[in-house]
Write a structure and sequence with these properties.
Helix content is 29%, strand content 27%. The protein is built from 7 helices and 13 strands. Helix 2 links the parallel strand 6 (55-62) and strand 7. It has 2 domains: 3-208, HUPs (Rossmann fold), CATH 3.40.50; 225-255. A 9-stranded mixed β-sheet has the order 11-10-9-12-8-1-6-7-13, sandwiched between helices. It has a two-stranded antiparallel ribbon with strand order 2-5. It has helices at 36-52, 67-75, 94-107, 128-136, 189-195, 205-208, 238-251; strands at 3-7, 10-12, 18-19, 25-26, 32-34, 55-62, 80-85, 111-117, 140-150, 153-159, 164-170, 173-177, 200-202. By secondary structure, it is an alpha/beta fold. It is globular. Helix 2 packs across helix 5 and helix 3 crosses helix 4.
């Protein structure tokens, strides 16, 4: 049976990130979660697989911290999850991540479609899908809002700057989907329970033969402190206050 692979990322919950007085970033107590937009991507894979008579599987790459993600991903309708854990994932950039994911995809039999989110909810670099496609030598379409698979091709609606464009791509292919492609339902109790019984397959990074080399190094990271003016418009009629606000925003160059 053909497989539709949904790539997802296990990310730090941004609500747990703390910025200290010196603008250093503290994530020591941060919990992790399935990237917000990847939930929509998984749902898109499940729906597409159902319509095409295919099998929706998940694929992720990270440190050992990704293990809790397996059950959640499976509870969202995937039949199986493939995962690659490596300590090097902590500092992996888009190039390394794509190398690992592409190598993993090659080991999965009968893959016809790979779905990635247009951008992850942590970095939103928008590199994964194009890089994977380049490595595999497959067609790629980004900004996908609608996806229909029929036979050996897929018809997609792609978001352009001021319009929508309908494209047809031969399979196998890689698609970067937008969150608007479909909602991401919250898994029910039975789905969560059954997820524990579904298979997950660990792929060893060293067995994939993918390169961990990159020319990019993170020099540092700092939080952002916003200096607010705290101007309050509390006097006068509502129309006058709105007018004053508009004038203030225009003066600041916002409008």
């Amino acid at each position: 049976m053909a497989k539709i692979v949904a790539c997802y990322k296990w990310v730090i919950d941004e609500t747990d990130i703390r910025v200290k007085d010196d603008l250093s970033i503290d994530v020591s107590r941060a919990q992790r979660k399935l990237s917000d937009y990847d939930r929509n991507t998984i749902e898109a894979a499940v729906r597409a697989a159902k319509e095409a008579g295919a099998q929706a599987v998940g694929l992720t790459f990270g440190t050992d911290k990704i293990k809790p993600s397996l059950k959640e991903a499976l509870s969202r309708g995937l039949t199986e999850v493939y995962w690659v854990a490596s300590d090097k994932a902590e500092s992996a950039d888009g190039k390394i991540t794509a190398n690992i994911l592409a190598a993993a995809i090659r080991t999965i039999k009968d893959v016809s479609v790979v779905l990635c989110t247009d951008g992850s909810s942590d970095s939103f670099a928008r590199q994964t899908a194009p890089r994977i496609a380049a490595i595999l030598g497959w067609p790629v379409v980004t900004g996908v809002r609608q996806l229909e698979i029929a036979g050996d091709a897929a018809t997609v609606t792609q978001a352009r700057e001021n319009s929508w464009e309908t494209l047809r791509a031969p399979l196998p292919a890689v698609f970067a989907v937008l969150p608007e492609i479909n909602p991401a339902p919250i898994p029910g109790l039975m789905a969560i329970v059954s997820a524990a019984k579904k298979p997950n397959t660990e792929l060893k990074a060293e067995d994939l033969g993918a390169s961990f080399e990159t020319n990019v190094r993170t020099a540092g990271a700092k939080g952002y402190a916003m200096d607010r003016k705290n101007i309050m418009f509390t006097e006068g009629a509502m129309a006058d206050r709105v007018r004053e606000l508009a004038l203030a925003l225009r003066k600041e160059g916002v409008l």
